């Protein structure tokens, strides 16, 4: 199980939310912030965890999360989007693959993370598909993607979906995902104060 790394992408500006989404929390037993929940989850399943922020200023705010098995790294170039976060994260790991999670996904289920990490590891990303949309922010990527990511970044691309364009990908279909997480809560992400209030009252 501990053959892969975990990468948490936390370098966004949270403009729609108005404050850093990593430090939001939802009611529940032992209420934890999103970043606390995800670091805890990934350290229980992964060989190492890399938390990718955008710059040294943000890094200072996350300093307390760095431990012996959680490393904080800053994007090679700040404000260049999630693609730069993936590039930086994959460049920092010692393992061949990483489960990548966005910091604004507070319901990633341990069974879903374990399932994705147990998929056969080769040169192809493992990408769940929900409502016909590839879930690139909760997926497994091989470290061998780094040169392709570099080329995409040089073209000015910022979006993770661009990775899927010229690459063999193992897509996991929704029926299969529902067997693991029937309501697909793992793929919920939170972007706005309205979405957060809805989740808080549900
Ligand atoms: N490391 C890194 N992560 C990023 C970057 N941009 C976005 N992310 C992360 O990627 C995930 C998805 O980001 P978005 O929701 O599209 O953007 P956001 O900046 O978080 O939010 P908005 O400003 O409201 O669009 C989140 O976990 C972000 O923290 C970046 O430049 N670097």
UniProtKB/TrEMBL annotation:
UniProt KW keywords: Cytoplasm, GTP-binding, Magnesium, Metal-binding, Molybdenum cofactor biosynthesis, Nucleotide-binding, Nucleotidyltransferase, Transferase
Alphabetized CDD domains for the sequence: MobA
Keyword Mitochondrion: no
GO function terms (MF aspect): GTP binding; metal ion binding; molybdenum cofactor guanylyltransferase activity
UniProt-annotated binding residues for Mg(2+): 104
Protein's UniProt keywords contain Nucleotidyltransferase: yes
Cofactors (names): Mg(2+)
Subcellular compartments: Cytoplasm
GO biological-process terms attached to the record: Mo-molybdopterin cofactor biosynthetic process
Catalyses which reaction(s): Mo-molybdopterin + GTP + H(+) = Mo-molybdopterin guanine dinucleotide + diphosphate
Function: Transfers a GMP moiety from GTP to Mo-molybdopterin (Mo-MPT) cofactor (Moco or molybdenum cofactor) to form Mo-molybdopterin guanine dinucleotide (Mo-MGD) cofactor.
Comment on protein domains: The N-terminal domain determines nucleotide recognition and specific binding, while the C-terminal domain determines the specific binding to the target protein.
Classification via PANTHER family: MOLYBDENUM COFACTOR GUANYLYLTRANSFERASE (PTHR19136:SF81)
Family: Belongs to the MobA family.
Protein name: Probable molybdenum cofactor guanylyltransferase
